[in-house]
Amino acid sequence: MKINDPLQIDGAEISWFAPLCDGDDDFLGNRNPDFKSSWENTSKIVSTADALGYRNVLCPSSYQVGQDTLAFVAGMAPLTEQINLLAAIRCGEVHPPMLARSIATLDHMLKGRLTINIISSDLPGDQLESSERYARSREVIEILKQAWTKEEIDFQGKYYQFNLPTKAVKPYQQNGGPLLYFGGYSPAGVDLCAEHCDVYLMWPETEEKLQGLMDNMKEKAAAYNRTVQFGLRVHVIVRETEAEARDYADNLLSKLNLDLGTDIRNRAQDASSLGVARQSQLREEADEKFYVEPNLWTGIGLARSGCGAALVGNPDQIVAKLQRYMDMGIRSFILSGYPHQQECELFAKHVLPRLKTVSLPEVFGRVPKTTPNSPLGKGPRH
Length: 382
What we know:
single chain, alpha/beta, 8-stranded parallel beta barrel, two-stranded antiparallel ribbon, 12 helices, 13 strands, about 15% strand
């Protein structure tokens, strides 16, 4: 988005999470086969989020413990009506022109309900320096954009060299194709997002640290004459009272072997990233109950890599916390909880009706705006 045309977003994109990577449980660190990542379990969660009025759902990517992201998104296309799907793409994993074609095909299947989460972590069995991974990601993004918006791919880079016609790879969405979401903390990653992506996703931090990340991104994007929207990936535990929510958080850790938790964190392909290190630092700054600021609980990071904190409280407290984030300028929230089906329903019951939600592809003008009675807009609207 050009800096002279900033978006005015009234509301926020409230999204849920599809646990494709075998990370769903009723107790952290306790492998319950009832919550194993399977088509049956995960598709039910996404269908529930769709019916309850969530506006997007993150479909993550992992080689060792995951279902295939693009195949899963394709399978959900005819089973959902209004929710967008945020497909995680590991840059370099698929030949870029073929990836452009796959994404365009999915976009038509979903009638514009597709968004893309750009991932730059190492590929299975492969290791690159951080700067090299981001350089490869930049080439992939530039090739995708050429494929979606130009008559040919004319690209000569370090990793890829192409001269190909692009008639067959035009997406359903207009004005640039699917929105690109991106999370990363290294200077190379921040610069990549500032130049090419639409939504900068952050993991939980104190409000002061989040503001610092946002201010830095605004400055970097302005250098490219662009603005970037902001998103927050965070877990949530909401109950009718704060005491109930805190008790549930404590109970999630009641069966955790700390050594097993360390092993779970280290198995992820992003385990050594700067973002994961920041989550560990956040936990070290917390009190003895793992709260680093009111209603922000870091204990969840004891048993998972990546996003390592949760909003914990009663409905009023969770709404107030989300509103503070919105006042800071955050317009996209990707939420999750353990187990995911149960917590999806509880958040929808206690909090979602109190929030005004938006679809960012509509806000960005990539697809026509829907209404509650239109074919693409059935179901709850908050």
